[in-house]
Amino acid sequence: MRIMGLDVGSKTVGIAVSDPLGWTAQGIEIIQINEHKENYGIERMTELVDQYEIETFVVGLPKNMDSSIGPRAEASLKYGKLLEETFDLPVIYQDERLTTMQANRMLIEEGNASRKKRKQVIDKLAAVMILQSYLDRQSNT
Predict the structure, then answer these.
(1) I want to staple 25 with a disulfide (CB 3.0 to 4.6 A). Which of 70, 73, 74, 131 is the partner?
(2) H or E segment at 122?
(3) For residues 46 and 50, what is the distance between their CA atoms, to the nearest angstrom?
(4) Closest CA to 120 of 101, 133, 107, 105
């Protein structure tokens, strides 16, 4: 059984899964969604949940810098609630302030990713960072 980490945006969801022991996070893919048309990619999520035998979701929660909940965090909470209702699995929220910026900085520092390529992988890398942060926190408790 594995844990799935999600970086939820208005147009894409970056997805990562843990290894079976829950030590490391690996990026899987980016699902195209359309928040405004309420198309949340649930069909593909169902396939991935079954394929990886997911037991828990970790959804990135992009709080404001003052820890308040803004529109993007509300959208992530809504997506998490949809996952909970659809799959009857627990959803844990992981503070992800600055995660996308950190992921972008990592890709730039590598120096081998053009802006177009970074855009294609940034959400997946952010999902890995969200999930790995959660896994690390769990191993320290």
Answers:
(1) 131
(2) helix 115-139
(3) 6
(4) 107
